């Protein structure tokens, strides 16, 4: 999907909500465990109930890998379902991959071609030749970790690297890479006050913002600093939506939570 | 496997060779493509021919993920084969994972419990709470990326972070984490002259060293700076060994290459 198509969907749905499909068998409604593929059954219900309220879905691959072959199969079924039934939806493989050149190409093929995701999250530590192989793919986005929402972000990301912080250096250096227009960035909502600095460096890039909700980030704060002319934000919520209820009404409860966020987003877009 | 057991195997085999199982269907002998599972067939032959010369095997997960479900199945079969037939061998999932706390725990479960690897490579960018969940696992090692063998290492890793380079900061900060004794570090052989600095910070840790062979690193140079009293090195070679021949003699050719490296290692250990 192109950036323009994503923006079109955001305008149409009046939503820049991304729903994180981080499926933990210990947390889904117990009645689903009788299904042949409980993970996919859960995802399908969540997607069916929320796809008019969200513009993007983001499965975190860790949750699927933890269940081995069954988990990988559930991931394949989930992305196939999204691509077939809801092709207007933007898809993100939250994989945080990154390796040397030829190996990064293998990862890019895995997520963009084999699975058919629109985008994948990638770690910046190994530098240019670990990221550019992902950027080669046309109409696919590479979402680079810049400033993450966890406490460990202060260990290295916010430290001073030759006159800037490491994360601003990641933003600035990555702008010079080949096909940099295919980059987006992960910026945690728990650090909303930093988003102004981010926007000064990458005014036009989309930011994927986790940490609203369960982790305590504020939607209003993030939008205040992060919105740009093309909206430029994808706000992710995972647990707050998908685990809103453990009963048979889980999909309805998820839709209610998603609708609440979508309505706040609509107000913000209308005010903008 | 404990560090002591690994050292015992190194002394016994007079080898600190790790063989990278980076299987690309375009590069393996064409006659194997008729097998039901060509990737596993290739790995099994390589392992059978080299297990007395190598102390460790390191599949890079990217190569398996690129083939979807089939690839993941081949990875499962490979690690099961190693654990059942050659339990004395040390196993490394070269996955370069890393995510926030609860998600890192899912990855740790995937590699340590579900697949049964002895160790996994992890990226440091997200800091302490992204790595400590891996360190919780008893008798398992977490191999942190510090200084990688690719050109992109110069983008951030070797830059000055508050008076040190980023990679030395990663070494120093990670030493303070809970269960830090379960850490090993990736240090590229293409940067052998840096290994002295690394040893000054982590004198007792094992270093996993890629980049000897195809990428141009020198075994002698790496050993000069990197050996410690417990040997403390695992030298990885992938393409130079596993793709030594594209004929039906590929396993024998791989064994010859592995034997050549093992003999150099034996000389170095005897001289030490």
Automatic annotation (TrEMBL), chains A, B:
<dbReference type="GO" id="GO:0004590">
    <property type="term" value="F:orotidine-5'-phosphate decarboxylase activity"/>
</dbReference>
<dbReference type="GO" id="GO:0044205">
    <property type="term" value="P:'de novo' UMP biosynthetic process"/>
</dbReference>
<keyword id="KW-0210">Decarboxylase</keyword>
<dbReference type="InterPro" id="IPR011060">
    <property type="entry name" value="RibuloseP-bd_barrel"/>
</dbReference>
<keyword id="KW-0456">Lyase</keyword>
<keyword id="KW-0665">Pyrimidine biosynthesis</keyword>
<dbReference type="InterPro" id="IPR013785">
    <property type="entry name" value="Aldolase_TIM"/>
</dbReference>
<dbReference type="GO" id="GO:0006207">
    <property type="term" value="P:'de novo' pyrimidine nucleobase biosynthetic process"/>
</dbReference>
<dbReference type="InterPro" id="IPR001754">
    <property type="entry name" value="OMPdeCOase_dom"/>
</dbReference>
<protein>
    <recommendedName>
        <fullName>Orotidine 5'-phosphate decarboxylase</fullName>
        <ecNumber>4.1.1.23</ecNumber>
    </recommendedName>
</protein>
<comment type="pathway">
    <text>Pyrimidine metabolism; UMP biosynthesis via de novo pathway; UMP from orotate: step 2/2.</text>
</comment>
<dbReference type="InterPro" id="IPR011995">
    <property type="entry name" value="OMPdecase_type-2"/>
</dbReference>
<dbReference type="Pfam" id="PF00215">
    <property type="entry name" value="OMPdecase"/>
</dbReference>
<feature type="active site" description="Proton donor">
    <location>
        <position position="96"/>
    </location>
</feature>
<feature type="domain" description="Orotidine 5'-phosphate decarboxylase">
    <location>
        <begin position="16"/>
        <end position="254"/>
    </location>
</feature>
<comment type="similarity">
    <text>Belongs to the OMP decarboxylase family. Type 2 subfamily.</text>
</comment>
């Amino acid at each position: 999907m192109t950036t323009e198509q994503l923006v079109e969907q955001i305008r149409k749905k009046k939503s820049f909500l991304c729903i994180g499909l981080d499926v933990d068998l210990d947390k889904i409604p117990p009645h689903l465990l009788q299904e042949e593929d409980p993970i996919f059954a859960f995802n399908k219900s969540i997607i069916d109930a929320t796809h008019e309220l969200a513009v993007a879905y983001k499965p975190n691959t860790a949750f699927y890998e933890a269940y081995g072959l069954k988990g990988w199969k559930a991931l394949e079924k989930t992305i196939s379902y999204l691509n077939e039934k809801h092709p207007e939806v933007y898809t993100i493989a939250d994989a945080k991959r990154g390796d040397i050149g030829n190996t990064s190409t293998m990862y890019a093929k895995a997520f963009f071609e084999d699975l058919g995701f629109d985008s994948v999250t990638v770690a910046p530590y190994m530098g240019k030749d670990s990221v550019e192989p992902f950027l080669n793919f046309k109409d696919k986005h590479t979402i680079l970790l810049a400033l993450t929402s966890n406490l460990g972000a202060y260990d290295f990301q916010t430290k001073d690297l030759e006159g800037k912080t490491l994360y601003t250096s990641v933003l600035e250096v990555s702008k010079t890479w080949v096909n940099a227009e295919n980059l987006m960035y992960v910026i945690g909502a728990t650090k909303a006050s930093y988003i102004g600095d981010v926007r000064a460096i990458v005014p036009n890039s989309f930011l994927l913002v986790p940490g609203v909700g369960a982790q305590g980030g504020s939607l209003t704060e993030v939008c205040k600093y992060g919105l740009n002319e093309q909206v430029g934000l994808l706000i992710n919520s995972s647990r707050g939506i998908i685990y809103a209820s453990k009963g048979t009404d889980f999909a309805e409860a998820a839709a209610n939570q998603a609708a609440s966020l979508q309505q706040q987003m609509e107000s913000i877009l209308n005010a903008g």
